[in-house]
UniProtKB/TrEMBL annotation:
InterPro entries hit by this protein: BphY/WalK/GraS-like, HATPase_C_sf, HATPase_dom, His_kinase_dom, HisK_dim/P_dom, HisK_dim/P_sf, Sig_transdc_His_kin-like_C
Subcellular compartments: Cell membrane
Pfam families for this protein: HATPase_c (PF02518), HisKA (PF00512)
TM spans (from-to): 12-38, 257-278
Organism in which the protein naturally occurs: Oceanobacillus sojae
UniProt-recorded name of the protein: histidine kinase
GO molecular function: ATP binding; phosphorelay response regulator activity; phosphorelay sensor kinase activity; protein kinase activator activity
Gene: yvrG
């Protein structure tokens, strides 16, 4: 039952572990979902800046990223380019860059890029990153993209501006460029009064904070805003263009992580729910079987431990427990053992009663024939009208003596057979040397004048072996086998008894071999059946019909076996196999 307790603890621990793991994953999932939406908000505010930050997180240390077999082109969106610059100003990685860009930058280039937010013909976003893992160096990630508004503003400021405004000679050109972009340019003085306006002539009235919001979150609006302050004149330039770059950019890093955790949470949730339902059937179904089991046992039905339907439910075709019932393996085994013991106890009582009835019936049946003979002779002797001769009286006396001896042998055999069936546990066993013990048994045959015409030879085993036997019963078994060979063969037959090892000394084989008349297959089949020779007492040699049955019972009590091989006119071999002491 300790194993059962351990398995229950293990199963419930797994279930609670899954629930704990589910809670942890749900917390992480909520965290990444929140992070995703925050990042998505940043992305909606400034598309290219958010894209750059995600690329920087994805790439990390560019050297390690490349050594791992990754390619920046796989994570870089279309219509943009990327340069990664090390601390010395050298470009160490680039992708999709225009041909006119440098491969190395100095401090002045960095200042120009910062002030103009432009490299070549591309607007840029930049981010200085120091990866958590790698060589500890800092890298500047520069993301370039097409932005006509930035390019136009820089061009106007650098090439057209005079005294903080657009000269009269350049107004038409500026107007044309703005119309192509569908944009407009307004210039205010220090007092906030409109000085010049180009492009769309619609008046623009901005809220004070709206100007700041458009600068920090440009992609929240349908138009972009570019500003320039001319410090000499104090004029402020504001350029408006349609926000063509306001597009739906998937944040793949955060999105993928979120999807992984959401999927993992869903899987763990399903597994946890499945385990809960599974355990309800796993722990509940056996309880119903145990309840039915106890009811049947309470009604005395010990043999039907499980119904056929329950057996199909509990066991596989190979006889092993199904997986969901293995948890209660010890319980099933305990029930089986208890039912087997109760059933064995009941059968033992029934067998004892049946044995008593058989013993009485057998005694009654087998004694009737000799008693009938003796009764007949008694009536004849009591007839006064007949004068018996001395020879006739001698014959009648011999017959009555034979019948009396037969009845005594019969009663003794019945008693022994009954004891072998019911008192086996009370028998005592001792170790004997087989050669020495067999010689003691066969010595009485050699000294008995009744068997002087019979030949018997024992071939000993070398070296001598020890076996554990009940000496009295073992001798009776050998006696019965030898008597049976003599009894059903002519006097001139020879009997040879051999002992040999079997199974590397784990068993002992004793063979009783005769060269007599043998027996047919039908006789061999029923040789060990009680009363097979019948109870005919007209011939004394027929015996009680119990000798071979008793020999078999004795062999079984010694955990052994008896077998017979015989052919008519060629003789018979009876083989006894007994376990051998290996010490």
């Amino acid at each position: 039952m300790k194993k059962l307790r351990s398995r229950l603890f293990f199963h419930f621990s797994i279930q609670f572990s899954f629930i704990s793991l589910l809670m942890i994953v749900v917390v992480f999932t909520a965290f990444f979902i929140g992070l995703y939406y925050i990042s998505n908000e940043d992305r909606e505010a400034d598309y290219y800046q958010a894209q750059l930050e995600e690329l920087a997180i994805e790439v990390g240390d560019p050297y390690d990223y490349k050594e791992m077999g990754n390619d920046i082109s796989d994570v870089l969106p279309e219509n943009v380019w990327l340069q990664i610059i090390d601390e010395g100003g050298n470009v160490i990685e680039s992708e999709n860059v225009p041909e006119d860009l440098k491969e190395s930058y100095n401090s002045f280039d960095m200042i120009q890029m910062k002030e103009r937010e432009q490299l070549g013909e591309s607007a840029v976003k930049y981010s200085l990153e120091k990866p958590l893992y790698g060589n500890g160096n800092e890298y500047l990630f520069v993301l370039g993209y097409k932005d006509s508004g930035t390019i136009l503003m820089n061009e106007l400021v650098e090439n057209v501006k005079i005294n903080g405004s657009i000269p009269e000679a350049d107004k038409s050109e500026v107007e044309e460029k703005l119309n192509r972009l569908e944009g407009k340019l307004v210039i205010y003085n220090e007092a906030g009064n409109l000085v010049q306006q180009f492009g769309n002539q619609e008046q623009v009235e901005e809220q004070p904070l709206g100007m700041i919001e458009k600068d920090t979150s440009p992609d929240h609006f349908s138009e972009k805003q570019y500003t320039f302050l001319d410090r000499d004149s104090g004029n402020s330039w504001i350029l408006y263009t349609p926000n063509e770059q306001n597009q739906d950019m998937p944040l793949t890093l955060y999105r993928n992580i979120t999807f992984v955790f959401v999927g993992l949470a869903g899987i763990i949730l399903l597994v946890t729910v499945f385990i809960s339902f599974w355990n309800s059937f796993r722990y509940g179904s056996p309880l119903f079987i145990f309840s039915n089991w106890l009811n049947r046992m309470g009604n005395g039905n010990y043999e039907e431990v499980l119904t056929e339907q329950e057996k199909k439910k509990v066991y596989r075709k190979n006889g092993k427990l199904k997986r969901r019932y293995k948890l209660y393996k010890e319980v099933f085994q305990a029930f089986d053992d208890m039912a087997a013991k109760l059933d064995a106890s009941r059968k033992e009582r029934e067998q004892l009663e049946k044995s008593r009835e058989e013993w009485v019936a057998g005694i009654s049946h087998d004694l009737r024939t000799p008693l009938t003979t003796m009764e007949g002779y008694g009536r004849l002797l009591g007839n006064r009208e007949y004068d018996w001769s001395k020879q006739e009286l001698q014959e009648i006396g011999d017959t009555i003596t034979d019948k009396s001896n037969y009845m005594v042998d019969l009663i003794e055999d019945f008693t022994l057979s009954f004891r072998l069936k019911n008192d086996a546990n009370r028998l005592t066993f001792s170790l004997v040397n087989i050669n020495e013990f067999m010689k003691q048994i066969l010595e009485k045959f050699q000294k008995d004048v009744a068997f002087k015409d019979y030949q018997i030879v024992y071939k000993p085993i070398h070296p001598d072996k020890k076996i554990e036997v009940n000496e009295r019963l073992f001798e009776r078994m050998i006696d019965n086998l030898v008597y049976n060979a003599w009894k059903h063969n002519p006097p001139e037959i020879a009997i040879k008894i051999e002992a040999a090892e079997l199974g590397e000394g784990k068993a002992l084989e004793i063979r009783i071999i005769d060269n007599g008349i043998g027996m047919d297959e039908e006789t061999q089949k029923h040789l060990f059946t009680r009363y097979y020779r019948g109870t005919n007492t007209e011939e004394r040699n027929e015996g009680t019909g119990l000798g071979m049955s008793i020999a078999l019972q004795i062999a079984k009590l010694h955990q052994g076996t008896i077998s017979v091989q015989s052919e008519e006119d060629l003789g018979t071999t009876v083989t006894v196999v007994l376990p051998c002491d290996t010490e």
